[in-house]
Amino acid sequence: MVEGLSVDPGSFFAGMVAGALFCFAALRRQAQGRDLDAPPPGPIEVPADVRAQALLLRAEGKAIDAIKLVRERTGCDLKTAKEFVDRLR
Predict the structure, then answer these.
(1) Range 59-68 average pLDDT
(2) Is the pLDDT of residue 14 over 90?
């Protein structure tokens, strides 16, 4: 121990727990495929023919098929494809 320096055991333990929780959360995000330093995904580029097909499928009440189509043709993730189909007018 350094002379003149005292550490409160309760504060030390609280700091260790907080650090462990932060590391656990960071590792969990990485395991889910999200890079901590990567910017959030932006809007996707959807070709006109895919947009028209997705719009038609959505109008027919086949939103799930429209989302699948957008995912297959653009390579985007499920959330992004769903948001795109939901915004179609």
Answers:
(1) 95
(2) no
- What's the CA gap between 22 and 75, in Å, rounded? 31
Query: What tokens appear for 7 in the block?
Result: 């550490």
Cα–Cα dist 33/47, whole Å: 26
- What's the structural domain count of the chain? 2
Does residue 61 register a pLDDT over 90?
A: yes
In terms of residue numbers, what domain contains 16? 8-37
pTM over 0.85: no
**Has residue 3 been placed in a domain?**
no
DSSP 4: T
Same domain, 33 and 14: yes
Q: Would you say residue 43 lies in a domain?
A: no
Is residue 1 included in any domain, yes or no? no
Any residues with CB less than 8 A from the CB of 71 and at least 6 apart, and which? 77, 78, 81
Query: Other C-beta atoms within 10 Å of 56: how many?
Result: 14
